[in-house]
Model the fold of this input.
Amino acid sequence: MTEMKTASFRIDREKWDEFIAKAEANGFTGTRVIQDAIDRYIAGTYPEIEKQQRQPRSVTVRREELTALSGQLAAAVAQIERLASQVAELQGK
Done:
């Protein structure tokens, strides 16, 4: 038997509910419809999908993470400088 993979993805709740309702009305599970779409995509029989002009998600996330980390680092450096100043004042007294 082939090792199975559980997959997940984000989707608008209303769209998901509509999808499940339609699949069930046609006698299918949502999983079966998704698996069929994957099989057709792999086989090259899935309808052509309009390509989106955007950067891969991993690049966008990395830049956002880098920006957030840079801000956190700057705040930490400022706090260290304040503490160092306070220590110097205490040592001078």
